[in-house]
Design goal:
Blueprint (H helix, E strand, L loop, with lengths): L25 E4 L2 E4 L5 H4 L24 H13 L1
Antiparallel strand pairs: 1-2
Length: 82
């Protein structure tokens, strides 16, 4: 959506959905609120979080490294000797 109107698919941009509230990409044009990045915001939220949403913080999955118990016991034993 731009000041000239919707330039996507013959001028048929959809209004933002409720989940978009708080996003910096929302802009008010005449009759309602529209997303400046996506012509159909509901499709962005269909499978989870929108990848363009500025108000959603992605949680980084902390990957725990596998520890070999044999090596860990050897390291612990060597630290005790020092």
């Amino acid at each position: 959506m731009s000041k000239k109107g919707c330039t996507y698919n013959g001028g048929s941009c959809k209004e933002v959905v409720e989940k978009c509230n708080g996003c910096n990409r929302m802009t008010e044009y005449g009759e309602g609120w529209f997303c400046t990045a996506s012509p159909q915001p509901s499709m962005k939220w269909k499978l989870g979080n929108c990848n363009l949403a500025t108000h959603v913080v992605a949680e980084a999955a902390a990957a725990q490294a596998k520890v070999n118990p044999l090596k860990a016991s050897k390291r612990a034993a060597s630290k005790k000797k020092k």
